[in-house]
Specification:
Order of helices and strands: HHHEEHEEEHHHHEHEEHEEHEE
Number of helices: 11
Number of strands: 12
Low-confidence stretches: none
CATH architecture of the largest domain: 2-Layer Sandwich
CATH superfamily of the largest domain: PAS domain
Strand content: 15-25%
Distance between the termini: 64 Å
Shape: rod-shaped
CATH class of the largest domain: Alpha Beta
Largest sheet: 5 strands, antiparallel
Radius of gyration: 50 Å
Helix content: 55-70%
Strand order of the largest sheet: 2-1-5-4-3
CATH topology of the largest domain: Beta-Lactamase
Length: 469
Amino acid sequence: MSLKNLLRLRHTLAFRLALWYAAIFTLSSLAAFVIVYLLIAGIIGESTDEDLREDVIELAELLNAEGIAALRNEINLEVESDGADSIFFRVLTPAGEPIFSTDMSSWQAVDIDREAFRQLGEETAPILKTLRFEEHEHNTRTIYGRIGPDHILQIGQSLEDDEEFLEIFRNIFGLTLAVLMVAATLIGWFMARRALTGVEDVTRIAMGISKGALEKRVPVHPRGDEVDRLADTFNRMLDRIHALIREMREMTDNIAHDMRNPITRIRGTAEMTLTSATSANEYATMAANTIEECDRLLGMINTMLDIAEAEAGVEKMSLASVDMAALVRDACELFEPISEDRGIRLVSTIPDGSLIQGDYQRLQRMVANLLDNALKYTETRGRVTVALNGDEQEAVLSVADTGCGIREDVLPHIFTRFFRCDQSRSEPGNGLGLSLARAIATAHGGDITVSSAPGQGSTFTVTLPRKPF
């Protein structure tokens, strides 16, 4: 691996996680060692002290039972067994004068502790102390104990075995800890890399998407952990973005198509008038046609702005008490001549009084768009039925027709801007009416749903709360 890759690796999250894992593992192991070491050292020290106390008790019993000669023999035997450089015995008078002692050649630096004598005179329990001499590599544990009215026993034992055992324990643990640190780092690196595999997949896919590969998706594993949920959420977001981009492209194409036709007609009319007109009336006709086409363009643009404002909620609605029954009835009367001209029967079932809180003009436009849409796609001798009902909480308006109906695969898209069931665009319109109607209903806290079947007609149902805010 090159130096550049190593430097880059140092700044990765996996590297930092591996270091954290190794550091925490090492500190935890070190803390455990310290605790175990102190416990073992305490147990060993207590065992040594207990052995010294038992020696004092046993020798006191021997002195009282068999006398000083038996005591001397037992002490010499024990020194021969353990070694004169490992242990010594000294029998003293209460004044601190030696009665006899074992070979003290290795223990010349050990003096009689007068403070221990003083404490022993005040207490009956043996006095234990740890001594450190420059001549000795290891510490010495001493005990002063009364074994008779005129005899005080001093025992000194080297702690060489205990200290060597603890040193071996430290060395073994140090070596083990070094091995475990390396193993912990490798394991931490493996675990971090494995845990972050999904994140790397997301990063790789995101980089591909930034270069235009919008069809790519992050693989989702069946583990169901946080990374998998992130990948699934990321894929859902990509699906949504892809759909939005596709809709934007379709909308752009639709806008271009719907704007090209009136602009083409304006240009064609102007060109023909300029090349062939011979009277003022022809120029007036051209101006009138231009104004009509411009009005159509402005109407489409204004409708798009109205939809955007309604969906974003940037424009405050003029809320007031609106009688939906009167509003729907007026709309039906307005469209009655159109339905008669097309040979369509317009039937309405409107009760008296159905008040809601809303914006009268917006609600009026919503109902007009629904009626216009129903009449547009209903054939001659068909029927459009308008009904208003509801309860104390909401008002429900339904507009049903007996027209051509809508295919099931088209239903999810009919409220999309510029979407038209008639892809040939032979019917007049710009595909914004239903989008605006739904945006108005949503702005009032309601919604519009549709049910339809090809050849059987469609039913649009508007649900509006009485008090949306």
